[in-house]
Amino acid sequence: MKRLFYLPLLTLSLVACSDDEVTLPASPGTGEDANYVGQAVGNFSAAEWQPGGRLGTTDNVSQSSYEDETPATTAQGLAQSFKNGEAFFGRNYNLSTPPFGGLGPAWVRQSCISCHPAYGHGKRQTSYNANTYGNGYLLVVYHPTAGTDAAGNAYAADSYVTELTGMPQTKAAAPFLPPVEESGIHISWHEATDGALPLQFPDGETYSLIYPEVSIDPSAFHTDPAPTNYEVRLESTIGIYGSGLLDAIPDDSLREQYRRAAPYARLNPSMWDAEANDWAPGAWYTLADGTKAIKRFTYALTRASLQDGAGANAIWNITNVTRSDRHKLYTTAAWAKAMSRDESVLSGILRDPSSPYYADGTREGVAAAVEALLSPATDQLDNPFHNFEAEMADRDFYDFMVWHRGLAVPRARNLQSPEVQRGKELFYSMGCTASHRPSWTTGEDNYWAPEIVRAQGELPRYPRQQIWPYSDMLQHRLFMKNDIRTGWCRTTPLWGRGLSKQNTGADDRLHDCRARTVVEAIMWHGYSRESDAYDSAELFYRLPKADRDAVVAFIEAI
């Protein structure tokens, strides 16, 4: 059997949890399932109506359901901080007007919500424009093979180019030029016709698979030197609701999941040492105060704590807005150097004596100021060209983290439906739960947070909650055409995804939005016989239409 079938019954016997720190009444449902919410129905337990547990689920299933605060946030008296923090996610940043000033000098987006429309998954794009609402794409510019850069530094295969930031910037404040010109970015979509399974189900229904190709013209880079030997992929944002609950899963529980999976599946060796049956060195992330924690966020598993990664980083590096614990710019030395030598940049500054880059008014002085101020190696606290003042106040960042950790998961829908119940039965029997693990139990949730957050107050907590994200939090490989960089991708949680269309206006799925429907997402799992999920996708392919529809109904319900 293929590896996806390991321990298919693993999650059927998880014990329920308690939330004795905060007791909350069950809320009634609305609509067709009003008489069933909170009750065991068919093959669903009563707990499965609340994917985020008692402390993390909202009963709202309307067009705003991704935006609600968790019951824990309310019970801890953090509702006002949640609302304040939400503003920093939803507002456009500008160059100078507090509390939303400090944008740039180069940036990825002007606001977080641009990437996460209605707090959900990004939308598929046919061209790249950072100002397009719903464009959740990040450009992944990397070296497909090992080599040596212009400075003589060796780089490894699949490593990010160092001339750009990890999240490449395509916007800049005048007179600067963006590190990448958007006019030089090209996205084209193609039909995949060479997959392992036919594009027609045995009963005659057809489907199609599309994938993106992305290129960047060499002339589009404003860095010195420009990247060489590079390829480009797209990675789209996922829904951020429920992230605080994932943060509350203990590291020990993650280790146990890896150990249970290891005999049946090849795990990313940078995360798991198969011989030692324990964490590989690359699994550990060093938090801001030196604390070590296990990576769990992003497709590439690059971040460990929600409070030192994901949104905590994004509010800084997406907008390039500094704060008291981040007094460096998110830039590269190659961009700083290019801007300090560009004649249009220098001339623009020399025409404006009020510019912070004007220095002594000589061309040499301006060039030195530009390189110093734009350099990521420059700590602005010690920069002779700049009197550092944090652009985001500590209290505002605290409120933002209350909001980020306080986002609820919408409750499940239609679990009383015989079709949804049939879909669950099939989902489990096909082995899908091997990677889409249904349930976890959170720990005491003694979360890590930076001192500037702890000094302001507590964050929402989710102790001892049974949650249903439908993700094993591990990385797998699907071997898709024009696949994600490295091929390893963390299993994206399925909870609440059935509400994407009504919340965001789109239902695009997978890491680059190549799947336009649930069926396409499933069939991409079977594109290659090498895929870790091929056997499950083939079983789905051979189901009669009524059963395929039931699987989709189940995925949309949870």
Tally of DSSP β-strands: 18
| Largest sheet strand order | 1-14
Total number of helical segments? 16
Query: Share of helix among residues?
Result: 10-25%
How big a fraction of the residues is strand?
5-15%
Distance between the termini: 27 Å
Identify the overall geometry.
globular
Radius of gyration: 24 Å
- Averaged pLDDT, please? 93
Low-confidence runs? 1-29
Structural class estimated from helices and strands: alpha+beta
The biggest beta sheet reads: 2 strands, parallel
Key phrases:
18 strands; 16 helices; two-stranded antiparallel sheet; alpha+beta; globular; disordered N terminus; 558 residues
Walk me through the topology.
Elements: H1 53-56, E1 57-58, H2 71-75, H3 79-90, E2 106-107, E3 137-142, E4 147-148, E5 154-155, E6 171-172, E7 185-191, E8 210-216, E9 231-236, H4 243-247, H5 251-261, E10 272-273, E11 278-279, E12 284-286, E13 292-294, H6 311-317, H7 333-341, H8 343-350, H9 363-374, H10 394-405, E14 409-410, H11 418-429, E15 440-441, H12 451-454, E16 466-467, E17 475-476, E18 489-490, H13 500-504, H14 518-524, H15 534-541, H16 545-557
Parallel strand pairs: 1-14
Antiparallel strand pairs: 2-6, 3-9, 4-5, 7-8, 10-11, 12-13, 15-16, 17-18
Helix pairs in contact: 3-10, 7-9, 11-16
How would you explain this protein's 3D organization?
The chain contains 16 helices and 18 strands. It is of the alpha+beta class. It has a two-stranded parallel ribbon. A hairpin with a 5-residue loop joins β12 (284-286) and β13. The protein is globular and about 75 Å long. The two termini are 27 Å apart.
